[in-house]
């Protein structure tokens, strides 16, 4: 079970006690915000993409952010192509609804979007469709497996 993989992975940072599990689904930004009791923009969604070499990457961004195709293409040199539903779990290591940057498959690089930097804390998933963990930017950076760097790849979140 992916949440157990995440729990085991986060033990090295003494962060596993921060994992929250819910009776209800937290698989979407809206459901997660309801479960946590916060604004949807404070949900850190983890989006999975495939690069031209066939490798998978994750972009973690704020709940109200959308990947900006021109920024993505300028950064990665290719058009943004999300993984298909059948590719997510085998390529990333977590099923849709629980995708997060913790305990993922080897070789999956993680990029953190600056849309998260406006929050003191936010809530990424923790490997299942009914879990999350509250983290700061520094904690997310430290605990994200295969973290590469902070990027500016999203739009829509500045219009507040």
Write the layout of secondary structure elements.
Layout: H1 2-11, E1 19-21, H2 29-36, E2 43-50, E3 56-62, E4 66-67, H3 69-76, H4 85-92, E5 109-113, E6 123-124, E7 131-133, H5 137-143, E8 147-151, E9 154-155
Parallel strand pairs: 2-6, 3-5, 5-8
Antiparallel strand pairs: 1-7, 2-3, 4-9
Q: What radius of gyration results from the CA coordinates?
A: 14 Å
Cα distance spanning the termini: 38 Å
Structural class: alpha/beta
* Count of individual beta strands: 9
**Major sheet strand order:** 6-2-3-5-8
Largest sheet: 5 strands, mixed
Can you put this structure into words, describing what you see?
The chain is an alpha/beta fold and 160 residues long. It has helices at 2-11, 29-36, 69-76, 85-92, 137-143; strands at residues 19-21, 43-50, 56-62, 66-67, 109-113, 123-124, 131-133, 147-151, 154-155. Strand 2 (43-50) and strand 3 form a beta hairpin. The longest helix has 10 residues, at 2-11. The protein starts with a helix and ends in a 5-residue tail after the last strand. 39% of the residues are buried. The mean pLDDT is 95.
Give structural attributes.
160 residues; 5-stranded mixed sheet; alpha/beta; two-stranded antiparallel ribbon; 5 helices
Question: What is this structure, in a nutshell?
Answer:
By secondary structure, this protein is of the alpha/beta class.
